[in-house]
Amino acid sequence: MRRMRRLTGVDNLFLKQEKSTQPQHTIKAVVLDPAAAQQPLTFEAIRAALPALVERIEPLRWQLLRSRLGRPWWIERPNIDLDHHVKRVSVPAPGGDRELSAQINEINMGGLDHSRPSWQLWYVDGLVDGRIALVLKLHHTLADGMASLRLLETMLSADPDEPLPGVTRSLTDERRPGAARWYGTLLRHQAAAAARFPNVLARSARTIQTVRARRKAGRPGFAEAFAAPSAPFNAPFTERREFAFVTCDLDQIKTVKTAFGVTVNDVYLAVCSGAVRSYLQRHGELAAESLSAVVPVAIRPRGAEVDWGNQVTTWYTSLATDIADPVRRLHQISANTKAARAVHDERDLWLFGDWMEYWPLFWFYGRALPILGAATKKRPTYSLIASNVPGPRGRLYFGGAPVEKLISVGPIVYPYGLNFTGWSYRDDMTIGMQACSDHIPDIWEIADGIQVALAELCSLAGESVAVGQAGTG
C-alpha cells in the first residue's frame, strides 16, 4: 500500500472555511495556439492524454479520506472517471478575452466533489484565431501558488517537439487501511504532535516578545486589523461570481519599478490599488481612509524542491487608496511593503502553520471571524486579497502548441470579497480577479482600471526619467 499523506493544518483551513457561498478552489487557465502542435489538439486527444497527466502529476491522484479524529488524509485514486474530470465547452463569437472570462466565470462557480480527486479540467474552444484554453479547477488544499506553478510546469514542456504524454505504467487505487493500522497511525501522529508542543509554546513566547519590542520601538509593521473602512465587496456574499483578467506588459511594470526605485510587487499592488480607488470613486463609495490587503507570501526554503500543498504566510499592508496622487501612492505602498518585509524577516514564519497542527484555528477563521465581521460591518479585518506569483520566463508548450497566456485566480474568503491574482509569463503579467457579482456586478470596470493605472504610472515614470536626465545634463 502507498503511504497516505495527512493534510497540514494550513491545507485543512481551506476545507474548513469552505461552504456553498465560499468554495475554496483556484483557477489555472492556459491559452494555447494549436496550429503548431505535434498532433491535432482536439478534445478527444486531450481526454486521451489525461490518464498520463494523472500519472505524472501526483496531486491529481489524491482523494480526501476524512476522519473524525483530526485532519483528513490524501489517499491515491489514480483511476479517474474521465467523464467527470474532463469537460468541453465552446465560447461564443468573437472568442476574445471577455468571452473567455465569462466562460471561466461559469466554470469557477460552484464547488468541487470531494468524493473524487478534487479537480476538473475544461477544454475551451471557439477562441479567436483558433486558439483553445485548458482551464483547471483545482482545490486550494492541493496547491498554493508555487505548487500550482510546479503543477503547470510538470504538465507543460519547454520542448516544442514533445508530444502529448502517454501512459507508461498502470496504477492501482489505494485502499483505506484496516482499523488497527488506521488508529495506530493516528495515535502515532498525535503522540509526535504532543512531543513538539513545548517547542511551539517556546517559539510563541519569543514571537510575542518580538512583536512587543517592535511596537515599543515605534517601528512600522503590518497594517492593523479592523482599521480599513468597509467597501461594497466586504459584505457577505452569495454563490454568484464575477471574473475578469487583464494582461499587462511586464516591461512597462519594470519601467515604473526602475523609475521610482520600487519592486515589481509594489507596482502590482499599486495598479490594483489605483483600479479599486477609481472604481469606488466613480460609484461614490471611496472612503477617506485607506483599504488594506492580505498578501500571501511563499515561505518555502530557497532552492528547495517545491512540495505540494500550502506553505505560505501572509503580509497585511495598507493599499494607500486614501492618496490621490499615483506616485505618492506607489511610494507609500513601497514603504508599507518594506515594513511588512521587516516583520516577515524577524518573525517565526512557520509558527502559524504549526499552531494549526494542534489548535482548531481554522474553526475561528471559518466560523467566528464571519460572525465578528457581521457584528462590525463598518470595519472588516482587511479589505481584499492580492497575490503575485513570478512565473516562467521561457516559452512553454503543450503537445507542441505554444502557451500564449497563463491565467490564475484564487478564491474569495469573507470578508475579503475581492481577489487579485497576478501571474507573470515571459514578457507579460496577467492579473485575474474575482468578486461576488451581488457587490461588483461588472468587474471589468476594475480590470480596465488596472490598465489605466499602469498607463498613468508609465507616463509619470517617463516624466521622472526626463527630469532626472535634464538634472544631470
Automatic annotation (TrEMBL):
Major enzyme class: transferase
Gene Ontology cellular component annotations, sorted alphabetically: plasma membrane
Pathway(s): Lipid metabolism; Glycerolipid metabolism; triacylglycerol biosynthesis
GO annotation (BP), single: triglyceride biosynthetic process
InterPro entries: Acyl_transf_WS/DGAT, CAT-like_dom_sf, O-acyltransferase_WSD1-like, O-acyltransferase_WSD1_C, O-acyltransferase_WSD1_N
Domain O-acyltransferase WSD1 C-terminal: 308-457
Transmembrane segments: none
Reactions that this protein is recorded to catalyse: an acyl-CoA + a 1,2-diacyl-sn-glycerol = a triacyl-sn-glycerol + CoA
Keywords for the protein's UniProt record, in alphabetical order: Acyltransferase, Glycerol metabolism, Lipid biosynthesis, Lipid metabolism, Transferase
Entry EC number(s): 2.3.1.20
Single Gene Ontology MF annotation: diacylglycerol O-acyltransferase activity
Annotated ranges, domain O-acyltransferase WSD1-like N-terminal: 7-268
Family stated for the protein in its record: Belongs to the long-chain O-acyltransferase family.
NCBIfam families linked to this entry: acyl_WS_DGAT (TIGR02946)
PANTHER family: O-ACYLTRANSFERASE (WSD1-LIKE) FAMILY PROTEIN, WAX ESTER SYNTHASE_DIACYLGLYCEROL ACYLTRANSFERASE 4-RELATED
Record-given protein name: Diacylglycerol O-acyltransferase
The organism of origin for this protein: Mycobacterium kiyosense
